[in-house]
């Protein structure tokens, strides 16, 4: 069963290769969607795919790459829409 996670990642997550590392992790897990920086310093993620893979990506987001300092991750869970052909950085 495919699911969708929409997440907002807080902390020191910009300027630390967070988006690129998320892209690589999502592709390795076979997850589709996107990741982007927000003006308030957070990172936003929309990810779809097999439930276990999406949960693994969200779990990874709670730590991120080595230079990141994630303080919290807010996640909304929904049914997948199938709208994304791949994973990208926006």
Molecular structure report:
By secondary structure, the protein is of the alpha+beta class. The chain has two helices and five strands, in the order βαββαββ. A five-stranded mixed β-sheet has the order 4-1-3-2-5. Helix 1 runs antiparallel to helix 2. The model has no long low-confidence stretch (mean pLDDT 98).
Radius of gyration: 12 Å
| Average pLDDT number | 98
Could you spell the SSE succession in H and E letters?
Answer: EHEEHEE
Helix content: 25-40%
Look at the helices and sheets and give the structural class.
alpha+beta
Strand content: 35-45%
Q: Biggest β-sheet: count, sense, barrel?
A: 5 strands, mixed
Which labels suit this protein?
alpha+beta; 5-stranded mixed sheet; 5 strands; 43% strand; globular
Question: Could you give a short description of this structure?
Answer:
By secondary structure, this protein is α+β, with helices and mostly antiparallel strands. It is built from 2 helices and 5 strands.
């Amino acid at each position: 069963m495919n699911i969708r996670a929409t997440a907002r990642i807080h902390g020191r997550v910009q300027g630390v290769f967070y988006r690129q590392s998320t892209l690589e992790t999502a592709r390795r897990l076979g997850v589709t969607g996107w990741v982007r920086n927000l003006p308030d310093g957070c990172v936003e993620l929309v990810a779809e795919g097999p439930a276990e893979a999406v949960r693994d990506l969200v779990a990874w987001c709670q730590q991120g790459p080595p230079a990141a300092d994630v303080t919290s991750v807010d996640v909304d869970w929904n049914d997948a829409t199938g709208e994304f052909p791949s994973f990208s950085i926006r």
